[in-house]
Amino acid sequence: MTDRTPMAERQLMAWFLRRSPASGARRVLPFSAAIGSETGLVRKQNEDRAAIARGRDADGRVFVVAAVADGIGGMQDGHVCASTGLASLFTSLLYQAQRGVPAELWLEIALYAANESVFRDYRSNGGTTLSVLLLLEGGGGYWASVGDSRIYAMDDVLVQLSKDDTIAGQLGKARAGSEQSKLLQYIGIGGSLEVSIHAVEEAQQGMALLTTDGVHFLESANGLLELVVRHAGDFGSCVRRLIELSRWCGGPDNASAVAIPFSSEGLVDDAPLSSSCLDVWDAFGEIRILDLVEVPSARREPFHSEDRSSNPLGAPEGPPPESAESEASNASTSGVVKAKKKSRAKAKAKTKTEGKVPQVQIQFSDKEG
After folding, report:
1. What is the per-residue pLDDT for 201?
2. Using CA atoms, how far apart are residues 102 and 285, in angstroms rounded to an integer?
3. Can you name the residues that pair with 150 across neighbouring β-strands?
């Protein structure tokens, strides 16, 4: 991350890195979606990030984006890479929507922006998977996946839409050895990234399910994944059961899932009124960002945010476990809050000379997770 990183991206990254419980699942009531994430029994920390965001484009049309990111084990700072990738993705999508860019280009631009953000900080020594689904008011949308996190469609049967970026995945193998399971590409790899964008079919109905490999390893257990999804009853129960089942099966990896309907119905209810606003939910809380707005002089208005974290559905009571990483993340967020006046003054001074540097005011609540 550099001084030129958009402040909205910095803010979202800090929020994704805040201290949180080891496990959480919650419903996103405005459109019947659900998000869950679980550290598991083997990993020391959760390097997954899963979230849903909603905003409006320049024409007032509502869009919703769901995404999961899995920081790559064995490389540097997987949790930071996942947070960076997701924050960059959402920020770029908002900017494209604000500027009137055709919706079919949003995901491609945003995924390359996420790749650049992670690569800039880690030079291919850190990375993350990223699977994302974009839904548009009035129907339709687009999806894409980089790495081996997955996107499924559940209607009559559970179908994997995405193809893993592994040798096994490209060959259509359900099971493979360690060599064939290595990632061929990921967010943060640099200039060799190739992104493929797919349109949501007009007739697509039912549930979209986005998972990290801590969840979809259940697919190898004689159809267990489909069985759980089919009989869950609702999206909230589906997500909660998937991450709990992952833990019951040994919790070998971080497990995260997002369940959301393909239908655009319900997307508009309680949606932001302005294209400058973005609502973001994860398994542990929610935040609203009032982002940058173009003005004729090329200067931008300040943006504000409010952290509306709440006790997530199924989250354990009591304080979350402490760790050096979580303390550092929390301290970083606290530092941003304390320095908001100074940052705003510096941004204002730069705006006078450069014309494109945002003024920022950030406000987090005291409640964590």
Report:
1. 87
2. 31
3. 211
Express each pLDDT in 35-87 by its tens digit.
Answer: 999 999 999 999 999 999 999 999 999 999 999 999 998 899 999 999 999 99
CA separation for the pair 325, 83 (Å, rounded): 13
Predicted TM-score of the model (pTM): 0.80
What tokens does 18 get? Answer: 């805040």
Classify domain 7-354 at the CATH topology level.
Phosphatase 2c; domain 1 (3.60.40)
Residue extents of the structural domains in the chain: 7-354
